[in-house]
Amino acid sequence: MKSNRRMILSIFWVVLGAALLGANLTGLLGDYWGGLGGGLMGVGVFQVIRNVRYLNNPEYREKVNTANNDERNKFLANKAWAWAGYLYVLIAAIATIVFRLLGKTELSTAAGFSVCIIMVFHWLSYLYLQKKY
């Protein structure tokens, strides 16, 4: 059932990408949307190939299932997200100061606001997880 949903979603990305790319080629949409359409098509095709391999190759299916359910991989994935969050906050905070010094007030405000949003999400997540566990 989960594989069928993934296959349908992958096909959706291919169709959406083709529509965006086609609209770009006919002049209805700008180059940005054509590039996005090409990217979506590429991701969709890759995902379709991967899903077909998962459905038709029992050895590959077992390997993927083992990797997805392995506790070490889950721990590493959570740790990687934590590091990414820390680095994002630090880089955005530094960018806030640098942009302000360079006189780029709008960029400084956007970077500072993004740090605030991440911190609010962190706080809300902490409160939720504290009650859950």
What does this structure look like?
- The protein is mainly α and 133 residues long.
- The model has no long low-confidence stretch (mean pLDDT 92).
- It is 91% helix and 0% strand.
- It has helices spanning 2-25, 31-56, 58-69, 71-101, 105-132.
Task: Give the helix/strand layout.
Elements: H1 2-25, H2 31-56, H3 58-69, H4 71-101, H5 105-132
Helix pairs in contact: 1-2, 2-3, 4-5
Overall mean pLDDT: 92
- Tell me the series of helices and strands, N- to C-terminal: HHHHH
The overall strand count is 0
Summing up helix and strand content along with how strands pair, one would put the structural category as mainly alpha
- Low-pLDDT sequence parts: none
Biggest β-sheet description: none
Proportion of beta-strand residues: under 5%
| N→C terminal distance | 30 Å
Please report the number of helical segments: 5
Radius of gyration: 21 Å
Defining traits:
5 helices, mainly alpha, flat, 133 residues
Concise overview:
The protein is mainly α.
